[in-house]
């Protein structure tokens, strides 16, 4: 008589086992991935890291300023969280020196996830994460292993090196168009982009001031100066990498440019966009006098920096 019931119980148990086999993370990176996508990391369970760092847009946001809990707006544009593994510091002003330090900041930031880390740890200890942390670290969730897991996932988000540019560099002459090849030349020479955006990820990991700070109400981000207090650092921001740049607009720390075309117009003559810039780098002092064609080629080159998985996501004017 109870046979049917037994079968149901056995099936349910099996289902439960299978389910936990499917979802229990095998590695630190997998644990970090589950945390990155979990809204439990915010006070009202509404926001995950991925709410702002959207995987379909190379882990950046398409809004000028992302929304945190209660629809609050931050003050800086959300950058891609990809290609972080070689970075010596994090955030536009470089205020975090390690990825473990960085990943805890958005959790307790009142306009982002607004959840004190001790509270999150209590939540985690009272949930399925407890067993998963114990399996991964032989320890209950604490701030050290929480940041280790999140950091490991962020550092796993490296571009695979399959962009048209990478293939071209490896000798596939057809991988970039004529325009993109011409754009690379302009990027490296006439437009001087390469002087700041160099290396495998197109950043020299320095703080530079391209002239987006003039002390007015709308352009008052003092950048690195806020951390060091050194007048020489006024208006300096970390040079962002440019991989997947065609899918991560809007651009700059304040999201002031919608498109790459606008970014190029800006560099061509910064003065027409921002008057009285303070402490602007000598490299961006004189107009570049790019022709319309040269501007197009530069933009085309930046489109060649898109990983194959985002090729259909590039943002055009
Ligand atoms: C509400 C939106 C929002 C949420 C949620 C959020 N971030 Fe961010 N993230 C940002 C913004 C904005 C910045 C840039 C802030 C700055 O430079 O001051 C940033 C910067 C970063 C950076 C540094 C990028 C660089 O170029 O230096 C990393 C890495 C990162 N976030 C990872 C995470 C992780 C991990 C989480 C979840 C624990 C998270 N973020 C949650 C908006 C968000
Ligand atoms: C003096 C160094 C310097 C030079 C030269 C330079 N850049 Fe930049 N670039 C930066 C810095 C610093 C930022 C970030 C500024 C900010 O957000 O306030 C940036 C931001 C960008 C961004 C936006 C990145 C993002 O994620 O929002 C793009 C695109 C870009 N640069 C492309 C170029 C191109 C194209 C050239 C050449 C025409 C160029 N840069 C020349 C330093 C430089």
CATH fold descriptor of the largest domain? Cytochrome Bc1 Complex, Chain D, domain 2
Top CATH class of the largest domain: Mainly Alpha
Helix content: 25-40%
How many alpha or pi helices?
13
Largest sheet: 2 strands, antiparallel
Kindly, what is the distance between the CA atoms of the first and last residues, rounded to a whole number of angstroms? Answer: 69 Å
Q: How many β strands by DSSP?
A: 2
Please state how the strands of the largest beta sheet are arranged side by side. 1-2
Principal-axis shape: globular
Query: What string, H for helix and E for strand, traces the elements in order?
Result: HHHHHHHHHEHEHHH
Number of domains: 2
| Whole-number mean pLDDT | 94
Task: Decide which structural class fits the backbone.
Answer: mainly alpha
Bound molecules: heme C
pLDDT below 50 for ≥5 consecutive residues: which ranges?
18-22
User: What is the percentage of strand-forming residues?
Assistant: under 5%
Gyration radius from CA atoms, angstroms: 23 Å
CATH architecture of the largest domain: Orthogonal Bundle
State the fourth-level CATH superfamily of the largest domain.
Cytochrome c-like domain
Structure explained in plain terms:
The chain is an all-alpha fold. The longest helix is centred in the N-terminal third of the chain and has 21 residues, at 3-23. It has helices at 3-23, 28-36, 49-52, 99-108, 117-125, 129-137, 143-155, 164-169, 178-188, 225-228, 260-268, 270-273, 292-303, and strands at 207-208, 237-238. The model is unreliable at 18-22 (pLDDT under 50). The protein has 13 helices and 2 strands; from the N terminus they run αααααααααβαβααα. The chain has 2 domains: 22-155, Cytochrome c-like domain (Cytochrome Bc1 Complex, Chain D, domain 2); 164-313, Cytochrome c-like domain (Cytochrome Bc1 Complex, Chain D, domain 2), CATH 1.10.760.10. The protein has a two-stranded antiparallel sheet.
């Amino acid at each position: 008589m109870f046979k049917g019931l037994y079968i149901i119980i056995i099936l349910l148990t099996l289902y439960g086992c299978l389910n936990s086999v499917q979802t229990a993370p095998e590695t630190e990176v997998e644990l970090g991935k589950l945390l990155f996508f979990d809204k439990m990391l915010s006070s009202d369970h509404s926001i995950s890291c991925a709410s702002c760092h959207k995987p379909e847009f190379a882990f950046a946001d398409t809004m000028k300023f992302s929304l945190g809990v209660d629809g609050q707006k931050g003050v800086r544009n959300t950058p891609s969280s990809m290609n972080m593994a070689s970075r010596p510091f994090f955030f536009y002003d470089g205020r975090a020196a390690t990825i473990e330090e960085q990943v805890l900041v958005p959790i307790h930031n009142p306009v982002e996830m607004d959840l004190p880390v001790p509270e999150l740890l209590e939540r985690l200890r009272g949930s399925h994460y407890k067993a998963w942390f114990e399996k991964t670290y032989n320890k209950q969730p604490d701030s050290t292993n929480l940041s280790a897991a999140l950091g490991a996932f962020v550092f796993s988000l490296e571009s695979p090196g399959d962009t048209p540019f990478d293939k071209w560099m490896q000798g596939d002459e057809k991988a970039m168009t004529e325009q993109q090849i011409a754009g690379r030349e302009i990027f490296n020479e006439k437009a001087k982009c390469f002087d700041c955006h160099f290396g495998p990820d197109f950043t020299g990991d320095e703080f530079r001031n391209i002239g987006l700070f003039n002390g007015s109400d709308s352009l008052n981000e003092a950048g690195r100066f806020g951390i060091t207090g050194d007048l020489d650092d006024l208006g300096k921001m970390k040079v962002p990498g440019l991989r997947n740049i065609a899918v991560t607009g809007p651009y700059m720390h304040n999201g002031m440019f919608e498109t790459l075309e606008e970014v190029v117009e800006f560099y061509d003559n910064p003065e027409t966009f921002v008057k009285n810039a303070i402490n602007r780098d000598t490299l961006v002092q004189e107009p570049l006098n790019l022709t319309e064609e040269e501007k197009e080629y530069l933009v085309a080159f930046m489109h060649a920096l898109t990983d194959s998985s985002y090729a259909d996501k590039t943002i055009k004017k």
